[in-house]
Each structure stands twice: as structure tokens, then as C-alpha cells.
Specification:
heterodimer; A: alpha+beta; Heat Shock Protein 90; six-stranded antiparallel beta sheet; 6 helices; 6 strands; B: alpha/beta; 5 helices
């Protein structure tokens, strides 16, 4: 099992505080992401974005959340046997977690390298497989964690603060 | 430039009748890779692409697209056109290549989106 962890500069204290405090969630959302279902993929992120928009989240932050969430959702649909997306809204941030049913990532460092992709032809034909999914999630997140191993499930989480 | 000027310039065909062609087009981005598009668009943008599957329309749920131009004579299937129509997202097809479209629009003063 290996892990990749990232916290954006300036967010170290806030993230540590959040992890220690474990505040109470305000809203929870859950979506199933079926394997290779590109008709459904993206709907969860769209619903999440709409909910946050209703809650009054700033449009720039909203775009970052939507992009990170969509990339992760596509990753689960494209590369795993299916999974679930859990979104938890707190007072000042959102936590989104994606858990799949494998087959896992053999080399996380390699997977994080911009341009590296294991996407198959079907996925590439749809315009995915640029090898920018994980880097794009990192770029848009304030904190991110990826835990996986070959032959195991993958868990990807990110935090984005509303202000 | 407004969308109707762009349709004329690219000899385009608007893919559903009630599309709002009076929209101002502030800038553009061109790519056939979805992650590139997500990474590079931070403002309201015209998208030029050869991708015609439903995920291209879904992109507009995540980022702010003014309209989509399908290049190289590509035309999406009806269910994809319906998705765009539901969202009020104008979609246009042109027989010109991505390179030619980009050149024509750039010469007409349309800037690249900020990345």
C-alpha cells in the first residue's frame, strides 16, 4: 500500500486543524460511479456543483471543486471496476472522497506524473487519457490524498476551502 | 465578436434552432483532450474541438462555456444535441479544420483564453 499526500502552501495548519477537530458535517451526498459508464459519469459532480451553488459558494471555488470532482469521477469510471463518491460539506470547506473496487494503482508517483496514462482505446476515443487527471485534481485542491496498491482498491480524497 | 459573426466566418451550421447567437465571445480554447480543456479554461470561453461525445457537453456543467464549435465536419448524435439544447448551450459544426478555425478566429481578433 502506498500513499501520496499533498497540502497546498499556506493550508498546512488549516488542514491539520480540520483533521484533528473532525467537525460535524452540514450536508452529505453519495453517488455510485459504475465502471465504464460514460453516460452517467460526471453527473455526481454536476449535482455536487449545483448543491454548492445553492449554498452560495463563490463561482471560482465552485469551478475548482467541479473540475477536481469531475476528473476523479472520470478516473473511477475509466480505470476501476466502479466505485462511490462521498461528498461532505462543512461550514467552510468540502471534503470529497472516491473509493473504488480496484484494481488499484501500481505506482502512485508515476500516476501523478503529468502526461502519464494507462487509459485504454475506448477511454482515449472519448477525449480522456491525457495523463492530466490526477495533476488537475491536485492543482485545484487545497489538500489531496491518494492511497492505493496493485490488486487493491483506491481511495482518493480532496479538501477545498470555500474562502 | 458575437456568435453569429463566428458562424458566418467559419461557414458553420448551428445544430439546434433556438440557439442564442447574440452572445459575445470573449476568448477561445481549442483541444481534443478533456483534461486540457478543464485545466486551461478559467473564464467564459468558446471551445473548438473534434470531440462529439456527451462528455463534451458535460464539460459545460463544470466550466463556463459560451458555445462549442465542432470542427472537421463532425456532428454529434441527436442525444448529444438534445443535451446541449437542454442547457441552452449553442453548438455549431464546421467543415474547417481545428487549425483553420483557430487561424480565422485569431485573425478576426478573438484572443486565446487565459490559462
Amino acid at each position: 500500500m502506498s500513499e501520496y499526500r499533498y497540502v497546498a502552501e499556506g493550508f498546512e495548519d488549516a488542514v491539520q486543524h480540520f483533521e484533528e477537530l473532525k467537525p460535524e458535517a452540514e450536508v452529505k451526498l453519495q453517488f455510485a460511479i459504475p465502471e465504464k459508464d460514460f453516460n452517467t459519469a460526471g453527473k455526481g459532480s454536476f449535482e455536487l456543483k449545483n448543491m454548492l451553488k445553492r449554498l452560495g459558494v463563490d463561482s471560482v471555488v465552485l469551478r475548482r471543486i467541479a473540475v477536481a470532482s469531475y476528473e476523479a469521477e472520470i478516473n473511477v469510471a475509466a480505470h476501476s471496476k466502479g466505485g462511490i463518491m462521498y461528498s461532505t460539506v462543512y461550514e467552510n470547506l468540502i471534503h470529497v472522497c472516491f473509493e473504488d473496487q480496484g484494481p488499484g494503482i501500481a505506482d502512485i508517483e508515476q500516476a501523478m506524473t503529468p502526461g502519464f496514462s494507462t487509459a485504454d482505446d475506448l477511454v482515449r476515443e472519448l477525449g480522456f487519457g491525457a495523463g492530466l487527471g490526477l495533476p488537475n485534481i491536485k492543482k485545484n485542491s487545497d489538500a489531496m490524498s491518494l492511497v492505493s496498491a496493485a490488486g487493491s482498491s483506491t481511495k482518493l480524497e480532496f479538501l477545498i476551502y470555500f474562502a | 465578436m458575437i456568435l453569429s459573426d463566428l458562424v458566418t466566418l467559419l461557414e458553420g451550421e448551428v445544430l439546434f434552432p433556438e440557439a442564442d447567437l447574440d452572445r459575445e465571445v470573449p476568448c477561445a480554447f481549442a483541444s481534443d483532450m478533456i483534461s486540457d480543456i478543464l485545466m486551461c479554461t478559467k473564464e467564459s470561453t468558446l471551445l473548438l474541438t473534434g470531440l462529439t461525445n456527451n462528455q463534451v457537453i458535460r464539460l459545460s456543467d463544470m466550466i463556463d462555456l459560451i458555445a462549442i464549435v465542432f470542427v472537421r465536419g463532425k456532428k454529434p448524435l441527436q442525444d448529444v444535441i438534445d443535451m446541449a439544447q437542454e442547457r441552452g448551450l449553442p453548438i455549431i459544426t464546421t467543415k474547417f479544420t481545428l487549425y483553420r478555425c483557430s487561424g480565422l478566429l485569431y485573425n478576426a481578433g478573438l484572443r486565446s483564453c487565459k490559462i
